[in-house]
UniProtKB/TrEMBL annotation:
Gene3D superfamilies: Chitobiase/beta-hexosaminidase domain 2-like, Glycosidases. Residues 29-86 form the Beta-hexosaminidase bacterial type N-terminal domain. InterPro entries: Beta_hexosaminidase_sua/sub, GH, Glyco_hydro_20_cat, Hex-like_dom2, HEX_bac_N. It comes from Saccharothrix saharensis. This is beta-N-acetylhexosaminidase. Keywords: Glycosidase, Hydrolase.
Length: 449
């Protein structure tokens, strides 16, 4: 009944009343781990650290029934007599959320922090900038968010259709907004890793300050890979050093994303110098796996392996830490079935079961894995819910639970116990049998592979 599945769960006889209070003590054990005992003598938690105590609380919430996930939970409940021993398999259990293509208002972003916490995920990777939008307030260069934060239109479905939606889109987070998100996440044992993408995917910045780009143009209204990249001259590098310094003032995370992906004709010197700047500031650069081709990087650079897992294995051989996030396994914006009503079907079919079967390569050597939610076709919180859940539930179990998995048992536990929790939370997930009529988007073109 617990999701993600704990290391061990032993059910006893009967139930005991629980009013929300329990004993806590610190004990030696694996990082983020805990042991939970429910007996006639009461509820006792022995945790390795603050994170372990927090995850024990999440487990107690699950054992309390779906109503415990409502905004006004019940008072006293009955818990099953049980013993739980638990700790995560991977240190990095992440979700990348693209708020650049479609802006997610702060209220909804905070809600996603809560949803990650429910699933014992501990990294929120925020993709803050791209060709289609700049979402980080810059007090040094305000045109970045004032101009780059808005685009006049968006593609209608897949870019190959050539259609446009006919409405502007935009928004940005103030620095105070983001400090609030960081603090809110920290209370839930989640680290927020920001990303400002360079030297490609930078059209929104170039629209604000044309001298930054190889060529000009406005904030992009298309999807895909924009051939326009940042100039690699010293003035542009210095501009971005200042932008990243602002980012470091807001985000205390040790890891800071610099992108480095899909930069047609991009200059590796640019990526190297920004990575070195972050290193000199005491942070760890975090880049997509294309950064392996730009030349020597600081040894502490973390590589996100998205173009399959081979780049990640190469990065390990070069001494870098790696987060596995291969598109064929954990891109949750990809279509969930061949169902004719699947909304905006793009990419390959990645079913709930496919995600559950994913086993990260070199599991004993990598930091962990993350699921990626790109939002070209996820233009609202409802669409985001549909794409993320329940596949994110499966991913959470992959990165938390022991490697041995029983798919049938997981699906039964998901349907009987966990989907009712998502219902209580108001998550508009994709039903296991297929989309509800109002979740389909007939007439909006996709591009299935």
């Amino acid at each position: 009944m617990i999701l993600p599945r704990p290391v061990s769960f032993t059910r006893g006889d009967g139930e005991v009343p629980f009013d929300g209070t329990f004993q806590v003590e610190r004990v030696a054990g694996p990082a983020e781990g805990y042991r939970l005992s429910v007996s006639a003598a009461g509820v006792r938690v022995r945790a390795s650290d603050d994170a372990g105590e927090f995850y024990a609380r999440q487990t107690l919430r699950q054992l309390s029934g779906p109503a415990a996930f409502r905004a006004v939970p019940p008072g006293a409940v009955a818990l099953p007599v049980c013993e739980v021993e638990d700790h995560p398999r991977f240190a990095w259990r992440g979700v990348m959320l693209d708020v650049a293509r479609h802006f997610l208002p702060k209220h909804d972003l905070l809600r996603y922090v809560d949803l990650l916490a429910v699933h014992k995920l501990n990294v929120l990777h925020l993709h803050l900038t791209d060709d289609q939008g700049w979402r980080f307030e810059s007090r040094r260069f305000p045109r970045l968010h004032e101009v780059g934060g808005w685009r006049p239109d968006s593609r209608f479905g897949d870019r190959r259709s050539g259609g446009l939606a006919g409405r502007p889109h935009g928004g940005y987070y103030t620095q105070d907004d983001l400090r609030e998100v960081v603090a809110y996440a920290a209370q839930r044992q989640i680290t927020v890793v920001p990303e400002v993408d360079v030297p490609g995917h930078s059209q929104a910045a170039i629209a604000a300050y044309p001298e930054l780009g190889v060529s000009g143009g406005g904030v992009w209204t298309d999807w895909g890979v924009n051939p326009n990249v940042l100039r690699a001259d010293e003035s542009t590098v210095d501009f971005y050093r200042q932008v990243f310094d602002e980012l470091l003032d807001v985000f205390p995370a040790e890891v800071i994303g610099l992108g480095g992906d899909e930069a047609a004709g991009g200059d590796g010197r640019f990526v190297r110098r920004i990575a070195q700047h972050l290193h000199q500031r005491g942070r760890r650069p975090f880049g997509w796996d294309e950064v392996l081709g730009v030349g020597p990087l600081p040894a502490r650079t973390i590589v996100a392996s998205w173009r399959g897992e081979e780049p990640g294995l190469t990065a390990l051989d070069r001494g870098h830490d790696v987060v596995m996030c291969p598109e064929e396994h954990v891109y949750l914006d990809y279509r969930q079935s061949d169902h004719p009503d699947e909304p905006i079907p793009v990419g390959t079919v990645t079913t709930l079961e496919d995600v559950y079967r994913y086993e990260p390569a070199a599991a004993d050597r990598v930091l962990g894995a993350q699921a990626n939610l790109w939002t070209e076709h996820l233009d609202s919180p409802r669409r985001l819910d549909y794409a993320a859940f329940p596949r994110l539930c499966a991913f959470a179990e992959v990165v938390w639970s022991p490697a041995e998995r029983d798919e049938a048992e997981f699906l039964a536990r998901l349907a009987e116990h966990h989907l009712p929790r998502l219902d209580a939370l108001g998550v508009e997930y994709r039903p296991l049998a297929g989309p509800r009529p109002w979740q389909a988007l007939p007439g909006v073109p996709g591009h299935p592979r």
